[in-house]
Amino acid sequence: MRICVFCGSSFGARPTYEQAARNLGVALAERNIGLVYGGASVGLMGAIADACLDAGGEVVGILPEALADLEIAHPGLSQLRIVSSMHERKKQMADLSDAFVALPGGIGTLEEAFEIWTWSQLGIHQKPIGLLDVDGFYEKLAAFLDQLVSEGFVKPVHRAIMLAEKSPAALIDALAAAEIPTDKKWVDELRR
Description:
The protein is an alpha/beta fold and 192 residues long. The chain has one domain (2-190): 3-Layer(aba) Sandwich (Rossmann fold). It has helices spanning 15-30, 43-54, 86-96, 107-121, 139-150, 156-159, 168-177, 185-190, and strands spanning 2-6, 34-37, 59-64, 79-83, 99-102, 129-132, 162-165. A seven-stranded parallel β-sheet has the order 4-3-2-1-5-6-7, with helices on both faces. The protein is globular.
């Protein structure tokens, strides 16, 4: 089993973000779950990769050519794949993974998490996704996602795909127990 982790190429404003990344990396290795991530050696990306590797875990990095120098490719991974584009990066990350986690991060982290959530909603895959809510980082986002449901833009069954937990162990457990709906957003609505 492998879990793809989306996270920042910076450390963010709080030291707890780096610690959470390291804790998740160790937790994955201890459970014999491989890590798939963006392939960089910097920021939270580097922290989770280093922690997973140091704990004896498998780490697969996927990095677009254009970012290999900017994000500084991690030299010590189990496997580093250099790909031609961001689209190819996300496709390979999705293909290699059984579940997804978003650590704190910026625009790229959110974009990756939302795209993979959209793919689930559309039935492209049936893999769970979760937010690691470090120090309440994702609380306001989770409330906004609930508002999308109350405003009629997201079905409750699709909102439930995006899990959130405060600790790495609880999130890994929630991902393992998740039941992803098989009804596809557009197909089911067109049948009415």
